[in-house]
Design brief:
alpha+beta; Aspartate Aminotransferase, domain 1; Arc Repressor Mutant, subunit A; three-stranded antiparallel beta sheet; 10 helices; elongated
Length: 182
């Protein structure tokens, strides 16, 4: 079992593909048909380090573990100071959150010009375009040839989309908050 845990950890922690993570069938091939037991044990050990193994299915509602992709992610969200330390700027995080909320609110697909329109209400056009391009490069957003934006693999892995949408919906403009306080 220790050997299988080491193999599973190596497969999950060291990227061997262009995209990180490992498909279920790859784990099954290397660890045997009871690979989910190995993953559960490894997950409990990783939780001591503040990490967890997340299973992401290719399509909503799909439950085929062989086609799913397994990732090692942080168990808890990063704080703003952690994000800054990791090289993120607050306005870049805000732009990403706004873009993802627009895409999510439209069923997972939105035209590039619509997302840019929303971002340009808060940022100059060049900055909004740069932030979107960076999100596409990092894998948070996918961009098709016909300029349609969709949720990227990294968003599905790293972000809780329901929590993001809830936070955006609960957010109120500062003017309204100030009026409530009075």
């Amino acid at each position: 079992m220790t050997r299988k845990l080491m193999i599973a950890a190596a497969m999950l922690l060291f990227a061997s593909h262009r995209r990180p993570g490992v498909r279920g069938w790859e784990l099954k091939h290397r660890l045997g048909k009871n690979y989910m037991k190995v993953i559960d044990i490894l997950n409990s050990r990783l939780s001591q380090l503040g990490l967890r193994i997340k299973t992401v299915f290719e399509e909503e509602g799909e439950e085929n573990l062989d086609r799913a992709r397994f990732y090692v992610t942080l168990a808890h969200p990063l704080t703003m100071s952690d994000l800054v330390t990791a090289g993120w700027r607050i306005d870049e995080v805000a732009a990403l959150a706004a873009a993802l909320s627009v895409i999510s609110s439209r069923g997972g697909k939105a035209p590039l010009r619509d997302v840019l329109e929303v971002l340009e209400t808060k940022f100059p056009k060049w900055k909004a375009e740069a932030y979107l391009e960076r999100a596409v490069r990092r894998g948070y957003i996918n961009k098709t040839d016909d300029d349609i934006l969709t949720i990227g693999w990294r968003t599905r892995v790293e972000l809780d989309q329901k929590t993001l949408l809830k936070a955006v919906l609960e957010a109120q403009p500062q003017e309204k908050e100030e009026q409530k306080e009075e």
